[in-house]
Specification:
Keywords: Disulfide bond, Repeat. This is CUB domain-containing protein. Pfam families: CUB. It comes from Paralvinella palmiformis. It contains no helices and seven strands. The protein is an all-beta fold and about 80 residues long. The protein has one domain: Jelly Rolls (Sandwich), CATH 2.60.120.290. The chain has a four-stranded antiparallel sheet with strand order 1-6-3-4, with no helix packed on it. It has a three-stranded antiparallel sheet with strand order 5-2-7, with no helix packed on it.
Length: about 80
C-alpha cells in the first residue's frame, strides 16, 4: 500500500494492535521511505510487540505485508496521518 501526501507534509503511521507470528520469516510487515519496496526500508515488524509511531522523511511511504497460510494470528490495526 502506497501513501502519498502533499510535498510539504510527511506521512506518520502507528498501530493500535499488532499480533503476527513470532518468527520474522512467515508473517511480517515492512515499511519503506518511498513509493515501493525498492525504497530504503524504515521498519520490519513481526510478533506481538506494538511498533512505535513512525514518521517518514518524505511525502511518500509504502507498506508491504507478507504472510503464509499455515498459522493464523489476529493481524494488525494501524492508522496513518499527515504531519
Amino acid at each position: 500500500m502506497s501513501i502519498n501526501v502533499c510535498d510539504l507534509q510527511k506521512v506518520q503511521i502507528g498501530f493500535q494492535g499488532f499480533e503476527l507470528e513470532s518468527s520474522c520469516v512467515y508473517d511480517f510487515l515492512q515499511s519503506f521511505n518511498g513509493g515501493d519496496d525498492e525504497a530504503p526500508r524504515v521498519g520490519y515488524y513481526f510478533g506481538s510487540d506494538l511498533p512505535g509511531i513512525v514518521t517518514f522523511s518524505g511525502n511518500t511511504s509504502y507498506l508491504k505485508f507478507t504472510s503464509d497460510v499455515s498459522i493464523t494470528y489476529s493481524g494488525f490495526l494501524g492508522f496513518y496521518k499527515f504531519v
